[in-house]
User: What shape does this take?
Amino acid sequence: MENFLRKHKLIDEFTVELPIHKSDFVRRLQNAVDPGDIGAWSGAFEAWEASNNDYKGEVTSQGFKIRRRKKFFQSNGQMQAVATGTFTEGRSGLTVRTEITSQSRKMVPLFGFILFFYFIVIGSFALVGFSSSGPKLPMFVLPIIVLHGAFMFFVFYHLAKRSVEHLKRELEREFVFLASQR
Assistant: This one.
């Protein structure tokens, strides 16, 4: 399953090497992240919380687990990618290894409902359309419903993939910015 998610870019990872000590970077990252729960169903009223920080989660001296804060009128408010990372200090500086995942577990019930709904609808149309008694349905209805179902799956896949790409780009910039602060 993880290979499937990586292949379809719903899980991505990157490594950044920074010229900073681990303790300084951890302190700066802790200042940039609001502590709190980042589970799939947390943060229902997060948009109303006052904070200057862009991220929410937990940061320890070993690693972090963060996601972008929800804000009003945010285009991908329902598809929040989560970043999990570790810190390794070497001679040349700090290495931050990060894995970003879409919250695909949150989407499983939604996809299950969509599949169930389309199987019922397509099955109903097929039974009515191919039965010898009763009204005949035009044959173009079935392909339209199948195309609509494929479109619905694609929309959610695209939103999840885009949230992973967006968080990756933002975190790369944020880590370099935190390391360059004086």
